[in-house]
# Entry
Amino acid sequence: MFPRFRLVLNELSETGEVLGLVTATTHGQEVWIDDRWIGYLVADTHLIRGRWNRRDDLWGFAPDKPGALQAPVASSEWMVLDGYWGARADIVFDRGRQWQRARFEVADGVRFKQRSSVYMKKADDSHPEGSELVEGGWDHEHCEICLATLGPDGQPEGYVSEGAT
# Structure
């Protein structure tokens, strides 16, 4: 199961963080919690993004948004997600998103050459000097949640949202 964060002091510190113990700093073979790393506390569909701070034998969790920890102080234990998976869960739980099924359409791309690397982005009305328009060059996208390929060589359709909160 996921690591858990158990509150030791049921109040906010002067720095705006809560102090507690974590059941594990890893999940599987991946490190999920380390000093100054971004992470998430989760209960039901409530996510709070913040940073971990090592405090001797305890861990401090400081939220990015002031006041976000009012709910955690009321709870004594929270599930922990690392920054990578927490960002994906944040997309799923964001009630401000309106999802619509859409078919991926190949579009023109712009190829950039910088130093020794080359990269591409979807073409818009303009492209910077030193770039090259590639017809049909934007041939796929990746799902922000599961990283599946969307396009002719992957899933032809996916879900899109605008204006997340």
Notes: The chain has a mean pLDDT of 85.
